[in-house]
Amino acid sequence: MYYICESEFVKMKKSFLYILFLIVFPNCFCQGTLSWESYFSYYEINDLSISSTSIIAASENALFSKNLTTNILKTTTTVDGLSGQTISSIYHNEVLNKTLIGYENGLMIVINEKDGSMLKVVDIINKQLPSSIKKINHFMEYNGLIYVSCDFGIVQFNLATSKFGDTYFIGDTGAEISVKQTAVFNGFIYAATSLGIRRANSTSTNLVDYNQWSVVNSGDWSSVETLDSNLIAVNSAGYIHKYNSGSFIGFLQLSQSSTDMRSVNHNLFITTPSSVYVYNNQMALIRQISNTQVLDGSLSFTCATSNGDVISIATKENGLFNSSFSTSASFENSMPSGPLRNSIFALQTGENSLWAVYGDYGGDYNPYPKDSYGISKFTQSGWLNIPYEKVLDAKSLIRVAIDPNDENKVYIGSFDTGLLKVENDVPTYLYGKANSSLEPIPNTPDVWVNGPVFDKSGNLWMNNSQVDNGIKVLKANGSWEIFSTKSIINDVSSCTFGRMSIDKNGTKWMATINNGIIGFNEKENVFKKITTGTDTGNLPIVDARVAVPDNNGQLWIGTTRGLRVLTNVNSFQTENQLTTKPIIIVEDGLAQELLYEQFITDIVVDGANNKWIGTADSGVFLVSSNGQETKYHFTINNSPLPSNTINDIEINSRTGEVFIATDKGMISFKGTATIAKENLNNVYVYPNPVRPEFLGTVKIAGLLNKANVKITDIEGNLVYEAISEGGTIEWDTTAFGRYKVATGVYMIFVSAQDGSETKVKKVMIVR
């Protein structure tokens, strides 16, 4: 466990993010004994490749393959060692059994399919070039070398040795030029570029000399490909050309610009957003597939290929479709279960489900342009995705609340039309200005609802931005009640609300963009405000993003410039002015403020009262209950996080699994800090028995908080003792860390802190 102090973190950010050599990644990304799970979307497919048995698809930042014999789907994600950056191209070499992945930022990863090991190649990233022109567009193999087409030129890469060769800057006078694709034809290398098709003799020993590259045809070209005895090119306008007598001659205008062209098994596949055209090696059209034949006219194709008699079409929003190449059989959708999108904006967990929404707003709470996305629900059986067409035209869905008394009822706040109700997985009702007490922003149709949260009585509280009556509650009996916030907010028309929470006293705590934190308790209609200044709350800035009470009655507040803590929520009843404090830690003998100047997006309290803190650009921090110890700081560099931009964090209180939503995908940390139980009736031990191949820890779950747990061998010799923090503890199957215990039955004695309850369990260890 460690803490990266602010000064160290700034240094890390300023230094380059990637090392200057290759790193071999193991098959499973782990940090010590930490356990991770990935929940990526596979709806947007950027590229395809084939092996002897499979179709390999690259989604935004993950891979999956489908075995055409067994139909088994296999995924590869950041948990396995991939980067969270956007994939732009993939290529599989069957002889070496290696898969090469290219990214928009210039990163390359080589996967050795024999053992799953990965090699991260950062030479292109480290080139002294603008970061905007390092995108990898295409891989072409010729004579044992891979020619990597990039937005600045061409790079040679030896897949067998994992070493780079020369770099070709083939623009005029050796300038950078965007190369979209290369092909070899009759002894020449041809490059489709943004400034013409250029070629050079493949046997030349000095291809780094731009003078070796001559312009064959001018213009902007999207692709060039060899088809047996033909060389075909397509320009950016979608005009197909054939090479003949020293130049490319146009012969067919496509109805749209092409998104991909490739030669497979003596056939040429040209893909446009709405159609796939398949030509034989005489350039005769043998098949044309429109998006309406696959699904409907809304489908957008990205590329297509074939493997044997299977034709595969990748789409931008609906995954992969497969069908028979030789017949007109219907297309089957093939992709792993996953959410609709990677950029999940908000989450909410119940005991048996997790809900995700994708509408968002910027740092200024501006939702425009409004998002037309659906909703996703995850359970043990997988993902259920509800498309936008079924959410009653509600756009910019930004926050979720699950009814604690009925998990089949879910409410979702919108920065568009109000509050959406989902019942039994079906959107059934949209509360708006015409049918509820929710109000639109004056002179607009917009009804902005954020922070929906249930109280103990089953009433749903929410805030309604930029109107006089900023707090609304939908009561359990279906009636509405409103509360004016005009007395506490300086300028109602400019004040947008963020998250809301409710403490043990029923006080509602609301984050605002320019009025700090507002506390409200309806019992006496009392409002109190926490803002900046030593006499008015001591926040570092008035732009607060989250305020959450912990298990000890403290209020943890995250702002766009750091962290503050209100030491006791009870002070809302007794103090006229609530005042917060920073958490001061000592690092290397120096006192400093925890998370100084960090943009905090979310704070979540786990069952052991630890705090999970999400940030806008620095990943996730897990700090101890009092903030004095930073247990972990997870970033893209030391964990499977696909991005350092954290949108939301949620914890399943029953299992302790921590779900982390970023702008590039969601992963989870399988922790043990579950919520404490009210009794010991449901204490359980897992795994049980512990078999020789198991390398993890034994969990004793279902505990009371501060329960005493003792483990002895069958003869009564004590081998482990601990006091629980939350509902779960771990045992590493050692005798107080000295040595692994032997095969046998071990007794687990659990007792409440006051001795009022006891429980005895057994666990079998097999070495």
From TrEMBL:
Keywords: Signal. Signal peptide: none annotated. Residues 57-214 form the PorZ N-terminal beta-propeller domain. This is ABC transporter substrate-binding protein.
